[in-house]
Amino acid sequence: MKLNIKYGINYELKRVVWTLNQLDWYYNNGYKPKLPQNITKDCTEREISEAIKAEYDDKDYKIASKKLRAEFSKIQKDFFSKLKEKFKTETIIPNLEIILTKYGTGWSYHSPKTAVVNIDRKNILEVALHEIVHLFAKPTVQKQKMSHWEKEKFVESIMAEICTTNNKKIRC
């Protein structure tokens, strides 16, 4: 499985615009997404882009990317083996995309192969794995018509199960 980590100003612009379009849903569900300074729903894409450029530091993303790759490589085989067993599938997302961001909520996912992870999170690997579980759990979630919070509890229960070996929690 190949991990494609992506980041950049254009990704941040897409993330902020997407977040602004979902802002009411976020607030109604108790989330407080992070936005660039002085950005509101009324801002233009140009204003958003300028605000992102003012805050953007490529080295922050490079550090997060390097950290995520190193941590992911240590647990990848075991994690996906357990994930395949849990969901009774041989299908693994061959080219998983991880988009690194500083905006929105701490994380999100977009089927069929994209996880979005906030680089300001200390537990960046755990966040990425949580979103990967969402990608695998989506058919079950849809079939059972789970609410948002039921879905989150379901994913967390899977994380607890597959990140435990011999009754010891592994870092994933």
Any overview of this molecule?
With 172 residues, the protein is α/β, with parallel strands linked by helices. The chain has one domain. The chain contains six helices and six strands. The strands form two sheets. It has a four-stranded mixed beta sheet with strand order 1-2-4-3, sandwiched between helices. Strands 5-6 form a two-stranded antiparallel ribbon. Helix 5 packs across helix 6. The longest helix has 29 residues. It is globular and about 45 Å long. The mean pLDDT is 88.
Strand content is 5-15%
Biggest sheet character: 4 strands, mixed
Structural class: alpha/beta
Number of helices: 6
The low-pLDDT segments are none
Oligomer: single chain
**What is the CA-atom radius of gyration, in angstroms?**
17 Å
Helix/strand order, N-terminal first: EHHHHEEEHHEE
- The level of helicity is 40-55%
Adjacency order of strands in the biggest sheet: 1-2-4-3
- Mass-distribution shape: globular
Domains, number:
1
- What is the overall pLDDT average? 88
The termini sit apart by 17 Å
Number of strand elements? 6
